[in-house]
Amino acid sequence: MTTSNWTHEAAVAANGITLEHGLQLGLVDEVLKAIEMKSTALDSLFGELLTMSDMHFGTEEVLMRQHSYPKYHLHVEEHARLLDLMRGLKVRAATGAPVKEEVGALRRQISAHIDGLDGEFETLVRTGA
Predict the structure, then answer these.
(1) pLDDT at residue 52 tops 80
(2) Could you give the 3-state DSSP secondary structure of residue 41?
(3) Which of 98, 87, 88 is nearest to 51 (CA)?
(4) Cα gap 4→110, rounded to integer Å
């Protein structure tokens, strides 16, 4: 594989990550709508959010290892924290506990993660710097 192929593949991967961020935030928005509507689909939507987020984080972590990303461990810890938060909210919602404000806070945390650590990593992938 030549360097130009690697650069092209890295750019494609970065674009995929960006698309997944939109899907992830969209699922959080669907969870919020389900909470407002008192939908029976809430548990299922939380499950989709967890599955998608786990797969997305795994993809990012593979790319981080491939690029020897210096903040890898910090980033992985943040992924684990977000997944734990999602799992806890799913359990609490299943018991009927009010979680709307906490899911809103989760959305803000995911957005901050995307703008912060993910943004730094995407810049590294796209530019190689």
Answers:
(1) yes
(2) coil
(3) 87
(4) 32
